[in-house]
Amino acid sequence: MAQTALRRWWEHFKLDTEDVPKLLGAHTLARVEAQVAASEKLHSGEIRVCVEASLPGELLRRGVRSRERAIELFSSLRVWDTEVNNGVLIYVLLADHAIEVLADRGLSARVPAAQWAALVATMRDEFRKGAFEAGLTQAVATVGHLLHEHFPVADEATANPNELPNAPWVL
Fold first, then answer.
1. 83-115 burial code (b ≥16 CB/10 A, e <16)
2. With the C-alpha atoms ordered 45, 51, 56, 62, is the resulting torsion angle positive or negative?
3. Helix, strand, or coil here: 102?
4. Cβ atoms of residues 159 and 41 within 8 Å
5. Rounded to the nearest 5 degrees, what angle is found at the Cα of 132, between the Cα atoms of 128 and 134?
6. Of the candidates 117, 113, 114, 104, which has an alpha carbon nearest to the alpha carbon of residue 147?
7. How far apart are CA 116 and CA 164, in angstroms?
8. Is the dihedral of CA 52, 54, 57, 62 positive or negative?
């Protein structure tokens, strides 16, 4: 096994779900949940945040990378299943220091790849400084702005059903 593969296994071995609140901050997940809920009142989109400490051993053995895992979660968390096809997954894999943002076809067709890359770069910069909450909240704000720009709620009286949970999914 190569040195980098051993290092990856070690990084995944030493982190688990209980480490997520410790690394992100005790109240970060609750604040992100509230921010997602507030954002979704302004547009018809759905934002789903998923923070995974480490991959299960079977996925590591198969060599699954963050993008592949994000696509798997995009499906299993039903982000692709919103009425207007405008769900967005913000995925963080802590052990790999990886960030993936996946948008369903309704929004991805309207937002250039460079804009998504800039969002990820901003998150990465904040994470490198240890500012996990700032990185996550900036990402949610940016995604919310894009959804509001392309899928605004017609007026405050218009019902916008919450199709997906607002709480970050922690694995």
1. ebbbbbbbbbbbbbebbbbbbbebbbeebeeee
2. positive
3. strand
4. no
5. 105
6. 104
7. 21
8. positive
Cα dihedral: 48, 56, 65, 34 (round 10):
20
This prediction has a pTM of: 0.94
| Closest to 88 measured CA to CA, from 14, 22, 146, 167 | 146
Contact 28, 145 (CB under 8 A): no
| Span 103-142, pLDDT tens digits | 999 999 999 999 999 999 999 999 999 999 999 999 999 9
Give the CB-side neighbour count of residue 93, counting CA atoms within 13 A: 23
State the Cα–Cα distance between residues 119 and 95, nearest whole angstrom. Answer: 20
The beta-carbon contacts of 158-161 under 8 Å, at least 24 apart in sequence, are: 160/40, 160/41, 160/43, 160/44
CB atoms within 10 A of CB 5: 11
By DSSP bridging, strand 98-103 and strand 87-93 are antiparallel
Instruction: Quote the CA–CA distance of 155 and 41 in Å, as a whole number.
Output: 10
